[in-house]
Amino acid sequence: MHSMRFPVCRILIASIAVIFFLSVPALADEMIPTVTHVFFEKNGLPYNESVYFTVRCYGYRCSGWDCRPPPDGFNESGTPAPEMVFSFSATCPGYGCTIYEPYYLNYRHIDRCNLAGETGGGNFSIPDFSSTPVPDCQELMPYMIGKANNQYYNTTPEYEQCLNGTYRQSELCDQYVTECSPVTDKDCGNWIIDGRYVKDSDRSLVCREEADRTRDACDIYLKKVDPPTMIMWKDTNGREEAARRTCELRFTIPLSPSSLNETPAGLPSKKSYGSPIMNGLCTVLRFFGRECE
Fold first, then answer.
1. Which DSSP state fits 238?
2. Alpha-carbon span 18 to 28, nearest angstrom
3. Which of 33-42, 140-149, 237-246 has the highest mean pLDDT?
4. Rounded to an integer, what distance in angstroms lies between the CA atom of residue 182 and that of residue 192?
5. Backbone dihedral angles phi then psi of residue 228, each to the nearest 5 degrees
6. What global pTM score does this model have?
7. Do 104 and 166 share a structural domain?
8. Are 29 and 62 contacting, i.e. CB atoms less than 8 angstroms apart?
9. Which end of the chain has the smaller Cβ count within 10 Å, N or C?
10. Helix (H) or strand (E) holding 259
């Protein structure tokens, strides 16, 4: 019996697609759990004071699958007019801090990124430091199968063998299908075997359900991966899951007095209140978008 429905092939194609999208994050419409280690240096030495910084990236938002500039997004010279298409802010309390920015960059073309920072020594800026906010990253494959409640597993040869057996079992269920006509039967689709339209019968459905139960039982051959053995990522609510990418950002704070005294766009001007306690309190308030009077 020759069928136009091939469960094993469909699963193989789906697996290839999953691997492809995992290996090319920019094409997958998802946020990738990313752990980034940030290092600020000054005068060739690690900078151990707190730094509040904002990264802003400029380019255009994509129009169409090939990421063309929007029709009305050109300037007089005929080149795409830059706009801010991505930004994030974070605070590094000391040298070598960790942030959990996922860098959702889908549907964006980025040409350049700027950094504006604030430290105890004043404000500074690093214009055009990169053409991407994530210049140095490493993809992680800490697990192969993820389940609810932060359960992670890797497959084994025994699991693959068990799984393939259930696919063959599902194929054998095709012998119980029944012939149908798409003209007179609304439940008859485009499934064709040996030139005949067919659909599942009660018997073939029972057969497939049994194969599905057997497939679920294959999980006993999975090898569990414990979260403490992986790099974990935190979302904005503090929930953890396994990271799938680690990145590193390194910045050098400029020594130019003008760079340290100017207030970059988007950062509040810094006032002195005489008292170290008041200055510290006002710094905290600024991080939450408030200002001291």
1. S
2. 9
3. 33-42
4. 11
5. -60, -20
6. 0.61
7. no
8. no
9. C
10. helix 257-261
Asked if residue 158 has pLDDT above 90, the reply is yes
Which position has the higher pLDDT, 60 or 10?
A: 60
The number of beta carbons lying within 10 Å of the beta carbon of residue 47 is: 19
Beta-carbon count within 10 A of 78 CB: 6
Given the DSSP bridges, would you call strands 232-234 and 240-242 parallel, antiparallel or unpaired? antiparallel
36 and 19 in a single domain? The answer is: no
Averaged pLDDT of the chain: 79
* Domain that residue 252 falls in: 31-140+243-287
Structural domains counted in the chain = 2
In single-letter form, the type of residue at position 94 comes to G
Q: Tell me, yes or no, whether 19 and 37 share the same domain.
A: no
Q: Which residue has the tokens 């980025």?
A: 110
Q: In what order do the strands lie in the sheet with 196-199?
A: 178-179, 196-199, 192-193
Q: What are the pLDDT digits (tens) for 187-223?
A: 898 899 989 999 999 999 999 999 999 999 999 999 9
For residue 227, name the pLDDT band (cuts at 50, 70, 90): confident
pLDDT by residue (tens digit) across 56-82? 999 988 888 888 887 776 665 666 667
Tokens of residue 107, six digits: 């549907």
CA dihedral defined by 22, 28, 29, 33, rounded to 10 degrees? 30
C-alpha–C-alpha distance, residues 26 and 36, integer Å: 17
